[in-house]
Amino acid sequence: MITVIKRAVGSLVITFAACGSALAASPIGIWIDHTGRGAVEITDCGGRLCGHIVWVKDAGHSDGCNFQVIGDVKPMAGNKWDGGWIIDPDKDPNKKYDVEITPLSDQKLKILGYIGTKFFSETMMWTRAPANLKKCGVEAAKPGAVPAPPPARDAEPPRRDAERRDPEPPVARPAPGPEAAKPAPRDSAGAKPKDCKLEFAGVSITFPCKELE
Fold this sequence. Notes:
Blueprint: H1 2-24, E1 29-32, E2 38-45, E3 48-56, E4 68-76, E5 80-87, E6 96-103, E7 108-115, E8 117-128, H2 161-164, E9 195-200, E10 203-208
Antiparallel strand pairs: 1-2, 1-8, 2-3, 3-4, 4-5, 5-6, 6-7, 7-8, 9-10
C-alpha cells in the first residue's frame, strides 16, 4: 500500500513539474519548423505574437528571408496563444490559416493550424533553434576581426583665414589733381637770392644780386 502511494505521489509530482515547465515556457525565440528546412523567429509585437522566417536550409530559397508567416496571435488562458494567423509558404504564401500556439517546454512548441474550427486541424511540432544559428541576410563577423575603417574622404588642405574670406574689392583711388605750383627756384645752397639795390640819379632800383654775377 505504501509503495502504491509513493508511486502515485511521484507521478503527481512529475505531472506538476511538467505543467510548471509548460507554464514557464515562452513562445518567444527562434524555432526550427516541423520540416527542418526553415526557422521562424517569434517576437512580441505590441502584446501579440508575430513571426518571420530568419533561416532556410536551402540557400536557393533565401528569397523568403524575413517573410512574415505568423501574425496577430493573442494570449489566452493556460499559456496558449490563439486568434491569429499563420502562412504555409510551401503551399500558398498568400493564404492565411488560423493558428494556436502552445509552448510545451522551453525546447518544444506546438503549432495548431486550422480553418474556422479546430475539428479539422493540423498539428506541427517546432523545436527551439540552437543559439549559434546564423540568420539569413546577416553576415557573421570572424572572431578577432577588426572592422575595416570607412573610406577616407579627400582631405582639403588647411587654408589661412585670409584665404578663406572672400577677397575684398579694390579701393578706388582719387584721380590726380592739378599739379601744385612749383616753388621759386633757389640757389645751390637752397637759400633765396638776396636783393641788390642800386641808386642812380635819385632813382632806386632793386634786383636780384645773382644777375650781377
